[in-house]
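Researcher: Let's do a round of design. I'm pasting the structure tokens now; please hold your answer until I've finished.
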């Protein structure tokens, strides 16, 4: 059983190999360049085919077959936006039959589908999937028997549904983020107020502590001065006591010396009187 991707590729291949049935008059040069482009297209030389189709359109801008085939060539080169614009111009050709118009719409739907799939996520490809669904629906109205278009339409609807679901999820996530951001801002505001109050309380406590420390320091300084004063008084008192004691010792020594001198003098006198 083939995968969806391979089936989709086959659907695109079948329609792109179908040569446009645009029965519209073209200039001889435009027809010549278009035939060259068709030959190169079949050989998968898409860059060369593109050159010849553009030459045809340069000679005759109303060469709708060249627009259609150039769209096919650009699609093969994954230039989906530019390819879709040439399919638009091919659709403006006069007197298109339903089968040919259905092919062009199918191919333009393929461009929109590929554009949607090239996005990073399904939600970004939502508009492209919507347009692809419209193109396939219009193509089926003109050719209801085209199973390739029917399959591509089913596939495009599934992609569109996925894109819508993803967009809803992203939208819900954005709303949730908004609510979360609002809650965060409110909480930040409350936290800011609380922080300010806490800071003010800390400042008040610090000021009180500083005042208390200052008072304690003043009291300690006073005690230190009083202690120093007492120590100085004590030292002064000790000095005075030492001086008095020294003076007393000196006086005592003087008295002692006088007494000794008297004794010596007396003893000497006695000896002299006795000997004489």
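Researcher: That's everything. Go ahead.
Model: Designed sequence:
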């Amino acid at each position: 059983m083939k995968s969806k991707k391979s089936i989709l590729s086959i659907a695109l291949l079948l329609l792109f190999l179908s040569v446009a049935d645009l029965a519209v008059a073209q200039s001889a040069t435009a027809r010549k360049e278009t035939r060259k482009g068709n030959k190169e297209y079949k050989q998968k030389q898409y860059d060369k085919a593109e050159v010849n189709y553009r030459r045809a359109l340069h000679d005759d801008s109303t060469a709708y077959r060249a627009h259609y085939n150039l769209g096919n060539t650009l699609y093969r080169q994954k230039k989906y936006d530019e390819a879709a614009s040439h399919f638009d111009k091919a659709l403006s050709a006069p007197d298109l039959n339903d089968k040919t118009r259905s092919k062009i719409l199918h191919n333009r739907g393929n461009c929109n589908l590929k554009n949607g799939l090239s996005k990073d996520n399904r939600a970004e490809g939502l508009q492209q999937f919507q347009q692809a669904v419209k193109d396939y629906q219009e193509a089926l109205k003109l050719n209801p028997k085209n199973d390739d278009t029917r399959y591509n339409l089913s596939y495009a609807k599934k992609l569109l549904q996925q894109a819508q679901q993803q967009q809803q999820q992203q939208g819900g996530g954005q709303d949730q983020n908004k609510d979360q951001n609002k809650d965060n801002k409110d909480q930040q505001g409350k936290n800011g107020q609380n922080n300010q109050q806490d800071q003010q309380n800390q400042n008040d406590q610090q000021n009180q502590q500083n005042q208390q420390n200052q008072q304690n320091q003043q009291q300690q300084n006073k005690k230190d001065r009083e202690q120093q004063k007492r120590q100085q008084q004590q030292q002064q008192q000790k000095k005075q006591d030492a001086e008095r004691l020294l003076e007393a010792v000196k006086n005592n020594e003087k008295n002692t010396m006088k007494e000794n001198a008297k004794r010596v003098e007396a003893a000497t006198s006695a000896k002299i009187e006795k000997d004489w």
